[in-house]
Specification:
By secondary structure, the protein is mainly beta. The chain contains two helices and twelve strands. The strands form three sheets. A five-stranded antiparallel β-sheet has the order 11-10-9-8-12, with helices on one face. The protein is elongated and about 55 Å long.
């Protein structure tokens, strides 16, 4: 047997819905300890009743879908200063729509992006389809600059944040 600790929270306003498999344990007792520990985390505090333990038999036909795993089109990239890049859609390799959030629920940006650069003070995003680059100021929680030339973005970052150079990271890692 395995014991899955899962959080499933749903509201009429679907933007606040939250579902995640937190951990898988080898015993019910360990899952209960995990449930108690995670119930104190900010994401789950005050919503403890939505933490559930599910029991599954390994090597039994009743669990036809096998082990859950994230696909390329569902992920969260944790960034500096409580920011994250999130993708929550059905598998579609052509869909590069992402959300940038501050904390758990504050949506700061929504759009099609392929690359990012994370810094304590700002986040740069790049769309390879149209060449647009964006600089999101983390303190102001908004896009401060939009351009399509790397040199111009670097000049802006140097003037605003004293950044000499930076390199892109692929959001949709292979």
């Amino acid at each position: 047997m395995i014991y899955e600790l899962k959080f499933s929270y749903y509201e009429d306003n679907s933007e606040n819905n939250d579902e995640i498999i937190i951990a898988v344990y080898s015993s019910y007792k360990k899952a209960e300890i995990g449930k108690k520990k995670f119930s104190q985390q900010p994401r789950f505090k005050g919503k403890e009743e939505f933490l559930e333990i599910n029991e599954y038999k390994i090597n039994e036909a009743e669990w036809n879908e096998g082990f859950w795993r994230a696909t390329k089109s569902y992920f969260i990239i944790k960034l500096l200063n409580n920011y994250m890049i999130e993708k929550e859609e059905e598998y579609n390799p052509e869909n590069h729509d992402i959300e940038v959030k501050y904390g758990e629920n504050i949506k700061v940006y929504n759009g099609k992006m392929d690359y990012y650069y994370d810094h304590e003070k700002f986040l740069c995003l790049k769309n390879t389809e149209n060449g647009q680059m964006y600089c999101l100021d983390k303190q102001q929680r908004k896009i401060l600059y939009k351009i399509n030339k790397y040199e111009d973005m670097l000049k802006f970052l140097n003037q605003k944040y004293e950044i000499e150079n930076f390199g892109w990271k692929n959001i949709f890692r292979e």
